[in-house]
Amino acid sequence: MGFLPWLADFLRRAFRLTVRFDMGEEPIPVAGSLAAVASERLGIVGLPNSGKSSLFNALTGGTAVVAPHPFSTTETNVGVAQVPDPRLDALSQMSHSRKTVHATVELVDIAGLVAGSAAGEGLGNRFLAGIREVDALLYVLRAFEDPNVVGGADPVEDLSTLELELVLADLASAEQQAERRRKAAKSDKSLVGEVEALDAAVEVLQGGTPVYRSTLGQGTRVALRPFFLLTNKPILAVVNLGEEQLLDADAVVKPVADELGGAGDVLGVCVQLEAEAARLDPSERAELLEGLGLGEGALPRVARGAYHVLGRRMFFTTGDKESRAWAFRQGARAPECAGVIHSDLQRGFIRAEVIGWEDLLELGSWSHAREAGKLRVEGKEYEVADGDVLEIRFNV
Ligand SMILES: Nc1nc2c(ncn2[C@@H]2O[C@H](COP(=O)(O)OP(=O)(O)OP(=O)(O)O)[C@@H](O)[C@H]2O)c(=O)[nH]1
Ligand SMILES: [Mg+2]
User: Fold this and answer.
1) What pTM value is reported for the model?
2) pLDDT confidence of 71, banded at 50, 70, 90?
3) I need a labelling partner for 29 at 20 to 30 A (CA). Which of 46, 196, 333, 340 fits?
4) Choice from 54, 107, 246, 276 to test ligand 1 binding pocket (greatest atom count within 8 A of CB)
């Protein structure tokens, strides 16, 4: 591995930053703008041969090994997926931007989990440690039938196998951490709350229930975050459909959605088809997907779905140099959002000029919006809304 890729990898591991070195372009400032380059991470889990690596490749343009036998993935694959957003494309066109920068999400693809993974069956258990610290999980549940690809085709059954393995892995982890914390709490009373949260989690997990399905309150779930339980993360489930199931997708997806209840979001995707389409150049891809009545295809929905379960929203900046989507925590106020762009903008925040993306498009340009008096001036208390276009005034 060359020095720069090694450094990028090191930084990512050490600080969970995504840093790409592009020798031809301005270097990305690392120090001082951590939030601007940090990326959400999503771990892909599912049974062997459910289509995890195929989905990973389609979303990231990656080249993970895809094969019809179980455990074709033996090393963790990490890649970056764009989160396409037609609102940003429209703004970029309006501003004649030289560059359009979509939000990204980092994906981690691991080996398949089988019944007994938590006890060391297959390869899965070894890999679970590698996804403990992701921000959300992407379940791939197989519905497609293919006599050449070993494995079942009942996505609800996949879901219960998967959940049980994750519950067992969490139980072992929660029990161990509870004991450790209990000892530490003897001399440090501030840890009592953590011990209580872990004990509550152990009880739920012993009953076979993932934390995200449990009745544990929001406070307990927040207190559990530092312990990186897999079932304390948001879930996006992708039901991998066969091509012939596309016409009847809702009927295949519904039982999974019913089973998961409000615990996660569910999408039906024909992964194979999307993976094939992703390999084509954009015009051929559009033609293929349109021809099948699939519109923009399912990949943008998966990427946006990931942002949705992560509780992330987008604001935009736009100008002739670049138009860019920035992800922020739902409910964040203007200075925190300014800080996503650069920490200086947060530190020296004075005010934000704000307009909704649709209103701006209608007015045709930032200067028209200003002349028409349609730019709102917002202060430190303003809660940024999804789809806002911002210009930050700051002074450092
Ligand atoms: N017919 C059909 N085959 C698919 C579909 N999605 C994936 N496959 C095939 O299923 C096999 C397994 O796909 P992978 O993407 O390697 O599955 P995986 O979940 O990463 O498998 P492991 O890494 O072994 O756990 C490959 O031969 C794929 O071509 C689909 O939608 N339809
Ligand atoms: Mg794989």
Assistant:
1) 0.84
2) confident
3) 333
4) 54
| pLDDT tens digits, one per residue of 298-350 | 888 898 899 889 888 999 999 999 999 999 988 999 999 999 999 999 999 99
Structure tokens at 37: 């380059």
Q: Could you tell me the distance, in angstroms and rounded to a whole number, from the CA of residue 131 to the centre of ligand 2?
A: 15
Q: Give me the CATH topology for the region 331-394.
A: Ubiquitin-like (UB roll) (3.10.20)
Q: Is there a contact between 17 and 38 (Cβ–Cβ < 8 Å)?
A: yes
| pLDDT band for position 233 (cuts 50, 70, 90) | very high
Quick check: 127 and 110 in contact, CB under 8 A? Answer: yes
Q: Which stretch, 39-43, 131-135, 217-221, has highest mean pLDDT?
A: 217-221
* 217 Cβ contact list (under 8 Å, min separation 6): none
- Which of the listed residues 114, 128, 142, 146 should we mutate to test ligand 1's pocket, taking the one with most ligand atoms within 8 A of CB? 146
Q: Computed from CA positions of residues 377, 378, 380, 386, in that sequence, does the dihedral angle turn out positive or negative?
A: negative
Length of the chain, please? 396
pLDDT score recorded for residue 117: 78
User: Ligand 2 centroid vs 47 CA: distance in angstroms?
Assistant: 9
Let me know: does 12 contact 77? Beta carbons within 8 Å.
no
Question: Per-residue DSSP letters for 302-316?
Answer: HHHHHHHHTTEEEEE
DSSP letters, 354-381, are: EEEHHHHHHH-SHHHHHHTT-PEEE-TT
Q: Where are the domains of the chain?
A: 1-31, 331-394
Sheet holding 376-378, edge to edge: 99-101, 322-329, 312-318, 388-394, 349-356, 376-378
* Rounded Cα gap, residues 197 and 313, in angstroms: 29
In whole angstroms, how far apart are CA 143 and each of 55, 115, 157, 274, 395?
A: 14, 18, 10, 15, 55
Within 6 Å (CB) of ligand 1, which residues are found?
46, 48-54, 66-68, 70-73, 111-112, 144, 146, 149, 240, 242, 270-272
Ligand nearest to the CA of 70: 1
Q: Which of 71, 272, 273, 279 to mutate to test the pocket of ligand 1 (most atoms within 8 A of CB)?
A: 272
